[in-house]
Write a structure and sequence with these properties.
mainly alpha; 6-stranded mixed beta sheet; 30 helices; elongated
């Protein structure tokens, strides 16, 4: 029927309602019920406005119960309008906590974080007492705004109202402080819960540490939670999987995957994508690809994660094929996907393909290149030794080059031994006042390669005067579900003596196989013997020695480094893979290296 509205469905309700003799209250309740019934039938904003008009005619709009439902329907429905809800809210003379909470929730839902806090302030000004439903929503707004000072004030209000023991409010405080970067305050609130810690409490504190990249602490907290006999939620396991991904803790990641399979019938896209990310970044590309192929519903993020995984494993051609598959599946790649594709071309040395992809993104898909895309191109050209072209690209960029652009050019200059362009890149970095110790170290190494020792001394002196210290090279290795960290020349490990004995044993066998230390990697003005001694105890070698001691013959070894692998460690690990018949996977700052039978998957291009 044309023009049918929610009111036409109950035309008898439009007739004047006669009060039963002697019962005004009963009449009011009937009107109230009629209003609620009509609100439930609304399917769009136009129908809602008609019902609102009818409620005004019935004279029950001032009733707190009706007003609350009126606001809630307008705010929380899929077709709702915050603007219209605000106009209703302004007409309510004495809103209760339910109405105010609903308005705050609506603003949070609409991502109007500032407005949510303003409604809270108005609530206080009008003398409406907040309750335990108010604070989780308000604190969520503070978290998104990173409004730590406002968050602390609200924490004070929680104490004044005696809600400091409410678990839901406390969990929200833990989450808010974590997202504002104040993990110690999160810990403080968490510890105050004592024996009241719920699964949500553990989830909040684990997420707080994850948001700050405190991955080892995440895994420790997860272990504590399991010892308490609590089962983690999906959201918690996403944080744990992220920790496993960053630490290269494959075995623990597998345990999480097993837990998910045993306890959750159907995994959502976010969890599936997190699992794929964990496997590909822990060195199990085949497993990640297998999970991706089995996904019923794939989205753009899923493709981005897999393309990125293929990139860091050096499979540039396969990444380009998956990029093409996205179009066949009707998914339009965004700027993030193109960063991953360009990175894949970079790691595989596909210069022309990378340039073609950049042009296609810019002109065919009309995606305006960002600094990240230019960074990939500069790195792509730099690795290939096309330093002059990289320099021309930087000079022609429509946006100002940032530190990452100049760092890529500086690193490429060191690899290809071009002090001239390297000095230009370093000067630009120093003009940006980044004061990054690694920039000074790379420039110093560039001078050392050219045996310009006076320049090396000048750079090192400048670093010391500015209080800059070099980030030490470190390697992580997982043995028996525990992650062990080593730094170069490390003497702090409890099994240090045994590890160093293993290093000596490995050295003897390496000599018989024809290994000779690449002393050009020690960029110091010292004799050859001291250079060999320094190379002997690089963090990666210590991690390999520890893994050989504590893992069974033939089992794979997986290592995560914080810096780019040096050529000596690269050659060393090739020989070890032959001597001990091991598959050794190393993830350095840029990519994966899979060593087997004396060959590396990077084909010596990294």
């Amino acid at each position: 029927m044309t023009g049918t509205t929610v009111l036409n469905l109950q035309t008898h309700l439009l007739l004047p309602v006669k009060d039963p003799p002697g019962s005004q209250e009963l009449s009011f309740r009937l009107k109230e019920q009629e209003s609620l019934s009509l609100l439930k039938r609304c399917k769009n904003l136009e129908e809602f406005k008609q019902v609102h008009s009818h409620i005004l005619k019935l004279g029950v709009s001032c009733d707190s119960f009706v007003a609350g439902n009126l606001v809630a329907t307008c705010v929380l429905s899929a077709w709702g309008s915050m603007d219209y809800a605000c106009s209703i809210f302004e007409q309510i003379e004495e809103p209760g906590s339910f109405v105010c909470n609903t308005m705050i929730k609506g603003h949070v839902k609409a991502l109007n974080w500032d407005q949510a806090l303003l409604v809270y302030c108005e609530m206080l000004e009008r003398g409406v007492r907040p309750d335990n439903f108010t604070y989780p929503i308000v604190l969520k707004a503070c978290a998104w705004l990173v409004a730590i000072e406002e968050g602390k004030q609200i924490h004070g209000h929680v104490f004044k109202l005696g809600l400091e023991n409410d678990v839901f409010v406390q969990n929200s405080l833990i989450s808010m402080y974590g997202k504002c970067g104040k993990v110690q305050l999160s810990r403080s609130v968490f510890e105050q819960l004592m024996d009241q810690k719920s699964v949500a409490s553990w989830s909040a504190i684990i997420s707080a540490h994850a948001s700050l990249g405190l991955w080892s602490e995440c895994l420790k907290l997860y272990g504590d939670m399991r010892r308490e006999g609590l089962r983690a939620e999906e959201s918690t396991l996403v944080s744990v999987l992220s920790a496993c991904t960053h630490l290269g803790a494959l075995n623990l990641g597998r345990c999480c995957h097993g837990f998910l399979l045993r306890n959750i019938s159907a995994l959502n896209v976010i969890v599936e994508t997190s699992l794929i990310d964990m496997y590909v970044k822990c060195g199990c590309l085949e497993k990640g690809l297998s999970l991706f192929q089995k996904m019923i519903k794939k989205n753009r993020l899923s493709y981005t994660v897999v393309i990125c995984g293929l990139a860091i494993h050096g499979h540039g051609r396969e990444a380009l094929e998956l990029y093409s598959e996205m179009f066949r599946e009707g998914l339009k790649p965004d700027d993030a996907v193109h960063v991953s594709v360009l990175s894949a071309c970079n790691h595989a040395g596909l210069v022309e393909e990378g340039l073609q992809c950049f042009k296609r993104m810019k002109y065919e898909h009309e995606i305006q290149p960002k600094i990240e895309h230019y960074g990939c191109l500069v790195d792509l050209m730099g690795r290939a030794g096309r330093l002059k072209e990289a320099m021309q690209l930087i000079n022609s960029m429509p946006i100002r080059p940032n530190d990452v652009i100049w760092q890529s050019l500086l690193s490429a200059s060191r690899v290809h031994k071009n002090p001239g362009i390297g000095e230009i890149a370093a000067e630009k970095l120093f003009q940006l006042n980044m004061h990054n110790p690694s920039d000074y170290v790379v420039l110093s190494n560039l001078y050392a390669q050219a045996q310009r020792w006076d320049n090396v001394a000048r750079i090192r002196t400048e670093m010391a005067s500015k209080g800059l210290t070099q980030t030490p090279g470190s390697s992580l290795v997982e043995v028996r579900r525990e992650v062990h960290k080593f730094v170069s020349q490390d003497m702090s490990h409890p099994q240090c003596k045994r590890i160093y004995e293993m290093i000596h044993q490995m050295e003897w066998q390496l000599r018989f196989e024809g290994y000779s230390a690449d002393t050009t990697q020690v960029l110091l003005d010292v004799d050859e013997e001291e250079k060999r001694e320094r190379l002997k105890y690089h963090s990666q070698k210590l991690a390999i020695a520890f893994a050989l001691i504590h893992t069974s013959q033939g089992s794979p070894i997986r290592i995560v480094r914080n810096l780019r692998m040096c050529s000596d460690c690269h050659t060393y690990t090739k020989f070890i893979s032959i001597i001990y018949q091991r598959q050794i996977t190393v993830r350095d700052r840029n990519r994966f290296h899979h060593f087997e039978d004396g060959i590396c998957s990077c084909r010596d291009y990294w």
